[in-house]
Write a structure and sequence with these properties.
This protein is α/β, with parallel strands linked by helices. The protein is built from 4 helices and 3 strands. It has a single domain, classed as Response regulator (Rossmann fold). Helix content is about 35%, strand content about 15%. β2, α3 and β3 (about 75) form a beta-alpha-beta unit.
Length: about 100
């Protein structure tokens, strides 16, 4: 597992690393999680990486936006750890879960 602090940093890392899943906030400085999901879903090298977008905005439009840009899932904040584990398992497989 890697923790990165921006979507721009994630794009640099994803050139060399292929994670089981990308978990990101929809609203990040400069380049947000929605934009990251859109970029990854259009790139033939990263299209197979599931992106889970999280957001404190639970207005329906945020989930729709996440789906429209190619995110595998949307997770409204706050959420339970069990909900996060279930979404990761569904999109990246049980082997992606780290105790």
């Amino acid at each position: 597992m890697s923790v990165l602090h921006s979507a721009v940093e994630a794009l640099r890392v994803l050139r060399d690393v292929r994670p089981d899943v990308v978990l990101c906030s929809g609203h990040l400085p400069v380049f947000g999680g929605y934009e990251l999901a859109a970029y990854l879903s259009r790139d033939s090298e990263t299209v197979c990486i599931p992106v889970i977008v999280m957001s404190g905005w639970e207005d329906g439009a945020s989930e729709k936006r996440a789906r429209c840009v190619g995110a595998a899932a949307f997770l409204p904040k706050p959420f339970l750890l069990s909900e996060l584990r279930e979404v990761i398992a569904r999109h990246a497989g049980e082997t992606a879960l780290v105790e």
